[in-house]
Amino acid sequence: QCLEAAIRCFEWCDKNCYANQAAEMGAALVSSVELYRSTNIDLYLKRAIEYASRLLEIQVIEPIDNNYHIRGFFKTSARDDEPARLDWQGPLYLTGLCLLYETKPDHPDAPKWKEAIRMYCNDYLTKIIEMNNFKNKKKKDIKSEKDCMEKDEGQ
């Protein structure tokens, strides 16, 4: 019953919706890969590959700064250069690319997917984490959340 519902949802979305933002493309990519894995129907794989290709078009591959050389994040959309925001579901674009690569590592586009994943993780997430305010603070220096907030406000 769940698979039938997922197929009906996919069919409706395929006819009535056009994913144009990174989060939407990521969700569509994840669902397409999972439907392909569940049914082995080539249409779902075809759509997954299309979503992956569109995602790669909005990935920033040139560094945006001279200090950290940050790159690899996905723009919100082709029309919005703002980095795609993480919502409560996490980066479904990353999840989808990982699932697709895991499912079809021998596909001709697989090296592109792997590089997109590497860039997002190493050239974006890791570098953003390095810029975290709390990176160099020791546990003993922070007594409570309130202490943390007071230190940040005083800086």
From the structure above, extract its key features.
155 residues, 6 helices, 2 strands, mainly alpha
Class based on secondary structure composition and strand pairing: mainly alpha
In DSSP terms (H or I, runs of 4 or more residues), the helix count works out at 6
Secondary structure: helix percent: 55-70%
Strand order of the largest sheet: 1-2
SSE run: HHHEEHHH
Structure description:
By secondary structure, the protein is mostly helical. Helices cover 59% and strands 5% of the residues. It is built from 6 helices and 2 strands. The protein has helices spanning 2-16, 22-39, 42-57, 92-103, 110-130, 145-154, and strands spanning 75-77, 80-83. A two-stranded antiparallel sheet has the order 1-2. A hairpin with a 2-residue loop joins strand 1 (75-77) and strand 2 (80-83). The longest helix is centred in the C-terminal third of the chain and has 21 residues, at 110-130. It is elongated. Mean pLDDT is 86; it is low at 141-145.
